[in-house]
TrEMBL record, chain A:
GO biological process: L-amino acid transport
Entry annotated with the keyword Ion transport: no
Family, as annotated: Belongs to the ABC transporter superfamily.
GO molecular function, one term: ATP hydrolysis activity
InterPro entries, alphabetized: AAA+_ATPase, ABC_transporter-like_ATP-bd, ABC_transporter-like_CS, BCAA_Transport_ATP-bd_LivF, P-loop_NTPase
PROSITE patterns linked: ABC_TRANSPORTER_1 (PS00211), ABC_TRANSPORTER_2 (PS50893)
Record protein name field: ABC transporter ATP-binding protein
Coiled-coil parts of chain: none
One Pfam family here: ABC_tran
UniProt entry keywords in alphabetical sequence: Amino-acid transport, ATP-binding, Nucleotide-binding, Transport
Positions of the ABC transporter domain: 4-234
Automatic annotation (TrEMBL), chain B:
Record GO biological process: D-alanine transmembrane transport; L-alanine transport; L-isoleucine import across plasma membrane
Keywords: Amino-acid transport, Cell inner membrane, Cell membrane, Membrane, Transmembrane, Transmembrane helix, Transport
Protein name: Branched-chain amino acid ABC transporter permease
Cellular component terms (Gene Ontology): plasma membrane
Keyword Transport: yes
Pfam families cross-referenced by the UniProt entry: BPD_transp_2 (PF02653)
Domain of life of the native organism: Bacteria
GO terms of molecular function: L-isoleucine transmembrane transporter activity; L-leucine transmembrane transporter activity; L-phenylalanine transmembrane transporter activity; L-valine transmembrane transporter activity
Family: Belongs to the binding-protein-dependent transport system permease family. LivHM subfamily.
CDD domains per UniProt: TM_PBP1_LivH_like
Membrane topology: Multi-pass membrane protein
Subcellular location: Cell inner membrane
Segments passing through the bilayer: 6-32, 44-62, 68-91, 103-124, 164-181, 210-233, 239-256, 263-282, 302-323
Length: 234, 334
């Protein structure tokens, strides 16, 4: 059974549909990457999965159970973590307090999970008493991902985790994504850096105008001349 | 040296008293703003309501304080805090929550709170009348005179019992608030919600529970501030009129949404008020002999007359908004 399955999802804001029938499925041990041009509905799809906008048609399943239009906090209880692209930390709280808020619904898991998150992101341990808003962009992204990991999610949704980061930090974040995935967390992320992201993807979904254009393994998409020509800049 | 004692009594003591009261009021305003993002104009009336509860309870049981060696009003304060917190939560459920549910703009909430302020003022007048009443009913206000061990000093430093209680309670409130916001899970969740409400919700934080807790704390602190002011002077139904502007000035001076800023701002405004009405001629008179002959000190050399004290927070407010709109600490700019 797929960890996450979306079937023919239509949705958008205020009656205007941005998604016009998107389908995707990833398994529990996979990294799924959504790529596509600006305005294709990539982030919108992620928000639709996490209950942040209304799905008008279609169905979303988590391990076979319907979760369409469930509220974000119910989805957190069901093992989903979401890292928004912007405003994804509590800037005036310290790094450790940010992580504590991530574990808010399971306070007894806070201590053991804290050690695991520090293992994934060692720089955070040194900065744990510092307000998260004072960190660099890459370290903030680590705090944001760490916060979402605190509930031990089975599925982690990442909205452009490398946006605005230097190439060095981008590779660092992708390496962490693979590590987190290897530790048994399914990952679905939206990325602008399509080539680098597809290189670590088990499954890639190329969206355009709110619909699936190509769906294949990451390697196949990278080597597909048509995908390369239209979406990867040659 | 007597002049220095005069300065301590009229500026240091009086400024600390006023500052403490403004600080506790401003903390409530700033907490409400940081969680619900609107300026709560009914806050000063909540303070008056708290003082009224103490007055009612003290009138009903005037002898209780004698049994424990404290003024009855102080013994009744925890109960009045609970009642005011209850009122605050009730007002939220009845007036502000429906507005929030409709997703109205902050200005609508502000106007709503103005309506609540008028309702509270009317109710307080209805039950308490319009005259000033002392919270000391069966006992007398104790006055401590501290004699200084210098020969040239003949006047004592004067501190009254309610002022001592006020300093202790302010200190307790500040330390308690600090520990709550930094050490407890709920306090951290409150700061998280103030930082980023969407992410707080996505983290599974129950935001409506945080709102209720905010009202409980703000209501409780409002009762403390209102009671301390009434103990120091007297209970008046129009106390809020003299409190609203200074506590908002204090919250803005400190940086809106910043609890420590509100405390600092409270003392800034409190001391500014007392320094502005202080008669500087008293301090300068001993130096008269060093002045040239044509310069004669007037009898009263204060920046503003006592009756115009209220312009001081007004001026501070304008000045801070012009030169440093984010306040001493960097607050949230609306």
């Amino acid at each position: 059974m797929a960890l996450l399955e979306a079937r023919n999802v239509h949705g958008g804001y205020g009656g205007m549909n941005i998604l016009n029938g998107v389908s995707m499925a990833i398994e529990a041990d996979e990294v799924g990457v959504i790529v596509g041009p600006n305005g294709a509905g990539k982030s919108t799809m992620l928000k639709a999965i996490f209950g942040l906008l209304a799905v008008n048609q279609g169905e979303i399943l988590l391990r076979g159970e319907p979760i369409t239009n469930l509220s974000p906090d119910r989805l957190v209880h069901r093992g989903m973590g979401f890292v928004p692209q912007e405003k994804n930390i509590f800037p005036s709280l310290t790094v450790e307090e940010n992580l504590e808020m991530g574990a808010y619904i399971h306070p007894q898991r806070f201590r053991p999970m804290l050690e695991r998150v520090y293992d994934f992101f060692p720089p955070l341990k040194d900065k744990r008493r510092q307000p998260a808003g004072e960190l660099s962009g890459g370290q903030r992204q680590m705090v944001a991902m760490g916060r979402a990991l605190m509930v031990e999610p089975s599925l982690l949704l990442l909205d452009e985790p490398t946006a605005g980061l230097s190439p060095l930090y981008m590779n660092e974040i992708f390496a962490r994504v693979q590590e987190i995935n290897a530790a048994g967390v399914g990952i679905l992320m939206v990325e602008q850096h399509a080539k680098q992201a597809l290189a670590i993807a088990d499954k890639g979904f190329v969206l355009a105008a709110g619909q699936n254009r190509f769906t294949d393994t990451g390697d196949n998409l990278l080597n597909d001349p048509e995908v390369a020509k239209s979406f990867l800049g040659g | 040296m007597n002049e220095l004692v005069f300065f301590i009594n009229n500026v240091v003591v009086a400024g600390s008293v006023t500052g403490s009261i403004y600080a506790i009021g401003a903390v409530g305003v700033t907490l409400i703003f940081s969680i619900m993002r609107f300026a709560h104009f009914a806050h000063a009336d909540m303070m008056t309501f708290g003082a009224l509860m103490v007055l009612v309870l003290t009138t009903a049981f005037p002898e209780v304080g004698g049994a424990v060696g404290l003024p009855t009003a102080v013994v009744m304060l925890p109960l009045a805090m609970a009642l005011t917190a209850l009122l605050a939560v009730g007002i939220d459920k009845g007036f502000y929550k429906p507005l929030r549910a409709h997703g109205v703009k902050p200005i609508v909430m502000v106007i709503g709170s103005l309506g609540v302020a008028l309702i509270l003022q009317g109710l307080i007048r209805l039950f308490a009348g319009t005259r000033a009443q002392s919270l000391y009913i069966a006992e007398r206000k104790e006055i401590f005179r501290l004699e200084l061990p210098f020969e040239s000093v003949t006047r004592p430093i004067i501190v009254t019992e309610p002022q001592v209680i006020l300093f202790i309670l302010t200190l307790a409130a500040v330390i308690g608030l600090h520990l709550f916001l930094n050490r407890t899970r709920t306090g951290k969740a409150m700061r998280a919600m103030s930082d980023n409400p969407d992410l707080a919700r996505a983290s599974g934080i129950n935001t409506s529970r945080i709102v209720t807790i905010t009202w409980i704390i703000a209501g409780g602190l409002a009762a403390v501030a209102g009671t301390l002011l009434s103990l120091d002077v007297a209970f008046k139904p129009d106390l809020s009129f003299f409190l609203l502007l200074p506590i908002f000035a204090a919250a803005i001076v400190g940086g809106v949404g910043h609890p420590y800023g509100a405390i600092a701002g409270g003392f800034v405004v409190g001391f500014a008020e007392t320094l502005a009405v202080f008669n500087w001629a008293v301090l300068l008179r001993p130096l008269q002999q060093h002045f040239p002959d044509w310069l004669e000190l007037p009898r009263n050399l204060a920046f503003v007359g006592t009756e115009y004290k209220i312009v001081v927070p007004f001026f501070i407010l304008v000045a801070i908004l012009v030169w440093r709109p984010t306040g001493i600490f960097k607050g949230k700019v609306i």
